[in-house]
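In the previous lecture we treated proteins in isolation. Real proteins rarely work alone, and many bind small molecules. This record shows how such a complex is specified: first the sequence, then the SMILES for fe (ii) ion.
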Amino acid sequence: MSIYKVTPEKAREMIRGQEAVLLDVRQPEEYLEGHIPGARLCPLPELEQRASEQFKDKTQPFIIYCRSGRRSILAAQKLEQLGYEVLYDLGGILDWPYTVVTLTDEVILEMSAFDHGDAKRIQHFMKVYEFSRMIAACECIDRKTCDILMVASVMHDIGIRPSLEKYGDAIGPHQEELGPDYARPMLEKFEGLSEAFIDRVCYLIGHHHTYTNVDGDDYQILIEADFLVNSMEGEMDRETIRSMMERIFRTKTGIRLLKTEHDL
Ligand SMILES: [Fe+2]
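The predicted 3D structure, ligand included, written as tokens:
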């Protein structure tokens, strides 16, 4: 018998000390919504194949969890049959009393590394992300669209650096041209993201300075949030701001925020 029960407290200690491989055996959508930091995604139906490819050392300990504790037991039993020697069943993330990380948190870390040394740019995307999140929440945007928006709002300006390097400027069309090619490989490193998700984020990055043919809530909110921050950071007269509000703003929350910000 090589399956042991482990409490969240003990598991957290082991995770912090990197004493075990942490496996999340849920589906990708569940994992992206929130997982324990450092967890590897290994959905139960793919467990056998992934284990044989990724975990050659059968003596290293594993901590396994799922949503409610049902799949984690099945996964532990499967791994035991495959010869893995030390298995800790943590049960369900529903009983995990600590904070979890989302996909967006991980993207923020990646983008901060990409913009290393440039505190202003990091602050900029953090503000755009916060405004996007708030507008999406107040406007009851569906979760899938919101997930795309969160990632796009953090990554939207990824084209600035390559644009400065290649063209010596960071005008909208250059950013839009170069951004997606930098975003795609970064997104492909994250586990569990669908092709459609990555395509849409890249599309938004490639269009965030284009105010025509806005074809979705994610697109609309991204340009509003970006303008809310740009009009706060730069010198812009009230007339320009007011006319932008009339031309491009559509959401009640975005309009309300812009009016408050500039006393319009
Ligand atoms: Fe921006």
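Summary for your notes: Residues 184 and 202 are 7 Å apart (CA to CA). The pocket of fe (ii) ion is lined by residues 124, 128, 156-157, 226 (CB under 6 Å).
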